[in-house]
Amino acid sequence: MKVEVDKERCAGAGMCALTDPEVFDQDEADGTVVLLDPSPSGEHQRKAREAAHLCPAGAIRVVE
Amino acid sequence: MTETLHPVLPTTRSTPFDPPPELGALRAEKPISELRFPDGHHGWLVTSYDLVREVLADRRFSNRAELQHAPITVGGQVVPTQPPAKPGMFINMDAPDHTRYRKLLTGQFTVRRMNQLLPRVEQIVAEHLAGMRALGSPVDLVPNFALPVPSLVICELLGVPYEERERFQRDTGKMLSLDVPFDEIMGALERVERFVADLARRKRDQPGDDMLSGLVHSGELTDEEVANMGLLLLVAGHETTANMLGLGTLVLLRHPEQLAALRADPSLVDNTVEELLRYASIIQFGTGRVALEDVEVGGKLVEAGSTVILSIPAANRDPDRFERPDEFDIHRSASGHLGFGHGVHQCLGQQLARIEMRVGFNALFREFPDLRLAVPVEEIPMRTDMGIYGVHSLPVAFS
């Protein structure tokens, strides 16, 4: 699995960092998404899919 | 030739916690249906989870105030279309203005930053529970807990000096009260507006470690913009959280087996908060958007200029998305609910609201293990005609 994020689209709502703080973080300055792990494994794959679905701005893409 | 008269937005509830039943019937038969607005506008009403989410994520729909028609009357009066948003009031703007303002704040509302506020929220909650205990049973939970806790948290964020908080709280409380005459409400509103504007100016000379100071010294905003952004944070973060605390307490008291489960395992509070946001959707008449061009939604052509009402309460009870949607169940995963909206306008303060509710509910039911209603549920005044649903007052008893 590969995760891609788009900081331009990101609205900084924090749903991804809430869903899996080991894969996603938020930029200290503007709250936008920071990708910690672009190739999550195990349980984190399910959470990454959930984060992509929850993202209000469509800024997270999961490529299986 | 007679013109077809489209239905108006259903607003009458048959139970305190469930949305108007007509919304459920529409969702099953016509998840996007034509809607007549009080000012004569013909627009649309969307009631299914998938379509509400689709429209909120679609950037061809605008949230600009000056384009929207109001779906309900207020005090029997037609609400005219509002003027364009004042500088800084970015909730009613579109990209790129909305983006520019919002990005100046998103760094302040991250999950991490909000978690850092946890000890202060715990302290504020504990002080108010002690205040309730001192007043004795029975006591009204709304003015003694639900309203002041989020108001003080906002004081903390904005950097309102301690000695000025009581005055600030008195006025913000008045702004939301039913018992206060209209001109007094307007007077309180003006005082709060002046107060925040004055506070923003003071932060230019004497900055602190707070959000207003951060905005003032971003170097990108005028004092007027900072003041309006401060007001927006107040308006968006006070009435909403306060009503979730009040209504959420009532929902839990009316579901004793669920409340017992939460008491037995306080770690269920995260899930409980999400389920409350789904089950008790307080944004009861909306939200609304306006098509900037012709857009097809659910097989219907929404013409440019049409206002579309997205029913959050109906979407959050959609059986295609949530099993047994009308059951309150703190064990379910309510993740994906639309209580905070969706799309680029999704609630900026949601991580703070979550913390206030998690701390608030757990501390309330820990401090008062036998908390109960002090009056029959039928006597609790519900906010049936307010944009944000909840309880006007909530008399509770404890020993």
From TrEMBL, chain A:
Q: Which UniProt keywords apply?
A: 3Fe-4S, Electron transport, Iron, Iron-sulfur, Metal-binding, Transport
Which Gene3D superfamilies does this one have? Answer: 3.30.70.20
Keyword check for Protein biosynthesis: no
**The protein's required cofactors:** [3Fe-4S] cluster
Q: Which InterPro entries match?
A: 3Fe4S_ferredoxin, Fe-S_cluster_ET
Is Transcription regulation there in the keyword field?
A: no
- Give an example GO molecular function: electron transfer activity
What does this gene product do? Ferredoxins are iron-sulfur proteins that transfer electrons in a wide variety of metabolic reactions.
Q: What is this protein called?
A: Ferredoxin
Q: What's the source species for this entry?
A: Saccharothrix coeruleofusca
**What lineage does the source organism belong to?**
Bacteria, Bacillati, Actinomycetota, Actinomycetes, Pseudonocardiales
From TrEMBL, chain B:
The family assignment reads: Belongs to the cytochrome P450 family.
What Pfam families has UniProt attached to this entry?
A: p450 (PF00067)
Source species of the chain: Saccharothrix coeruleofusca
Keywords linked to the UniProt accession: Heme, Iron, Metal-binding, Monooxygenase, Oxidoreductase
From the Swiss-Prot or TrEMBL record, give the protein name. Answer: Cytochrome P450
Record keyword Amino-acid biosynthesis present: no
The answer to whether UniProt assigns keyword Iron to this entry is: yes
The domain of life is: Bacteria
Among the GO molecular function terms of this UniProt record, one is: iron ion binding
| Chain residue ranges for the region called Disordered | 1-23
Q: Which InterPro entries match?
A: Cyt_P450, Cyt_P450_B, Cyt_P450_CS, Cyt_P450_sf
